[in-house]
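User: I'm preparing a small set of examples for a lab meeting where we compare how different chains pack in three dimensions. I only have the primary sequence for this one, and I'd like the structure in token form so I can line it up with the others. Please keep the answer compact; I'll paste it straight into my notes.
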Amino acid sequence: MDRESPGRDAAQEINVNKLISFILLTAGCLAPAFGQTRKTFDIYFLDMEGGASTLYVTPSGESLLMDTGNPGTRDVDRIMAALQDAGVKQLDYLVLTHYHVDHVGGVQELASRIPIKHFVDHGPTVEEREQVNGFQAMYKDLWSKAAHTVGKPGDKIPFDGVTALVVTAAGEALKKPLPGAGKPNPACAAFKPQAENRDPENRQSLGILFTFGKFRTINLGDFVWNAEPSLMCPNNPIGTIDLYAVSHHGTDQSGSEPLVHGLMPRVAIMDNGTRKGGAAQVYRVLYTSPGLEDLWQTHWSYTGGLEENAPSRFIANIEDPAAVATFLTAPPPTPPTPGAPAGGRNGRGGGRGPGHTGPAFWIKASADSDGSFTVTNSRNGFSKTYPAHK
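Assistant: Understood. Below is the structure token output for the 390-residue chain.
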């Protein structure tokens, strides 16, 4: 009767054991690659049609959303799409910069779709006219069932792996300089105040400076032009930053030289709409800011026209070419009243205008702790990496 020798059986057993050991060792090496958390600090600048909502996700997966866009389901649908892309199942923080409807309109709808653990705001409103449909009562009911913090300048939100420092809130601004900051701000000398803004709630905006290793980015909501020197003058308590979320959707009510030129951002991202934001003054301040490498926009701006808009690869949502051609060849008349919402090329960058009906694309920034970061346009997949400063 034929049978294999005991020596061959033993050899096969040794080979099988080696194979099993190799598989287990390989699996052990590969497991962290499949199960590891992200290494970057990810930021999604969402298209709210001239409203505002920005998602921040730490390398460990903690999430912070600043503002919720306009009322209804459209903007919340867009927020939920970004949350899904980021793998976020709950919001660790919802920060409301201030209580204007284009920033808080989606709160109730969002809360019905995803758990929100912690609400952060600047405290009571100073502008009752914006509190339509019982917003304050509804909002208090939401945060009373979770955690709630009224942020003040100098407070830190315990955001895992990222320092989230409140620098403006309730009309107050950070006074104590951060390490390495506090130098005189040359841009303050030429500052000229504007006619006082008619919406006092903007001045109350809660703004946050995010720091991830050597990477720094700031979001001040709709903090206004006339209040910006309270933060940046005569000395700059913040220092320079890498990424600037353009204040106030790029309208001319914010974004003075003391703020922008003092911060010296490498990159600016404007959450404008088609006819809201992109004011001529904002473009001028940005394009003359020392060290600015690129401007990115959530929308092509009718106010900016051909001269001021960033190159199309840096713009997430592009208008239909025929509509742009019609606007350029037969622009609507300029509003006669100074400060009125802009419908034509008067340079103010105000007004809402109709929202676009096509797909809504976001701009995503992914930062490494060494200070380098990559910005990506989800419309066309165009990415640009900004290496760390040496």
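A couple of notes for your slides: Residues 1-36, 334-348 have pLDDT under 50 and may be disordered. The domain at 125-380 is CATH 3.60.15 (Metallo-beta-lactamase; Chain A).

User: Perfect, thanks.
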